Amino acid sequence: xxxxxxxxxxxxxxxxxxxxxxxxxxxxxxxxxxxxxxxxxxxxxxxxxxxxxxxxxxxxxxxxxxxxxxxxxxxxxxxxxxxxxxxxxxxxxxxxxxxxxxxxxxxxxxxxxxxxxxxxxxxx
Length: 124
Prior knowledge:
Layout: H1 3-12, H2 19-29, H3 33-43, H4 50-66, H5 71-99, H6 108-118
């Protein structure tokens, strides 16, 4: 599978979080959607791919909920991923602000609010 190249890049330079975004695109093309979800969350650890990862994540989950066969399981997975997004962004934001002289304006709450404004959680 093509993901081995992405995995190799991460072995060489583990802090290159942007690789996860491109890995997610490859996983989506291979219909490996659970890995796609995880890679998008990891891509949010890169200031370079954060905005695009949020856009792809929102678009993906709108489609998932529109065609869901198991709303309860999908909703539970979505909420778990939102928690992971918060942790990922909050953890990285400290370093981003240090490297960008405190100029990062939005934290995890901004991006999560953006996702939740676009993705309507179905009721159970």
